[in-house]
Amino acid sequence: MVSLPALARRGDAATRELLSRGARRAGWTATVLAHPGYGSGGRVRVLGRVLLAPAGAHPEDRRAVPGWQRFLTLESAAAEVVVDVAGTRTVVRSDDDGLIDATLTLDLPDVGALPVRLTAGERSSATVVHLASPDAARGVVCDIDDTVLVTGIATPLRAAWRTFVQPMTRRQAVPGMARLLRELTSGAPHVPVVYLSNGPWNLAGPLSRFLEHSGFPPGALLLTDWGPTPTRWFRDGRSHKRTSLQRLAADLPGVRWTLVGDTGEHDPALYEEFARAQPDRVRAVLLRDTTGGASRQERFGDVPVVYGTDGDAIAAALPATS
Known about the structure:
The chain is of the alpha/beta class. 25% of the residues lie in helices and 32% in strands.
């Protein structure tokens, strides 16, 4: 018997196909949005998203539109995309949600930011793949909502207003977090940084600009699709973060990660699960306490855990070995 989420998934795909046919008849064609990826040791992970858009228009040009309008997109499944990186051209296809997630094996230069260009039809988009140093021994995985960006997930109406209505240019960074991440990445070349969030790919462009303008170190974005899946009405945020952490551990095997998050959702439980399963891969867990509690330290097994109300409070409580 087919489950209701599976039926919803089929209905979503059928609706998208119907709308896509009408859009193509109206002259809309595929366009691609490139998102920052990561790589090391001759392998890169290239990320992007393919949409249908009117001729001459590009979705990334809509910088001033409110967040809710960024969800009014028409993803293009099975679209052919040309990836140009490190002098190599590779053809890939988008998945059922229009997403590009391709791992390529290449001869890579030893640089921090490797230019990448994705092309769908006659339109293209540029980004970078952040290359970790081949001998990188540490890296940072950082949540976004209520960790670096004030969202207020615990208050759903306020969080919805900030996400869907308030312009990203008016959003506030969590105090001290940019300084904390810069401190965590200082003193060594090309320390990998990955911003891991349950936020939707629709907001990748504004989030990237927010991080840059707020002084956060550059890094890859790992977001998620909010549509129905074959087994769920809504994406599984825990599964997204869990599998992303496991993949990072496999893709960058020499790196010990500092995991940065907040106490508002699932970060403490997920980070503890990962730290206890792979303690040799975690340097520390740093959690912004959204309840406003006093700074404190504890441990997940052998891994130190630091709580603080913001980045400065966490930095002040960091153990010397972190």
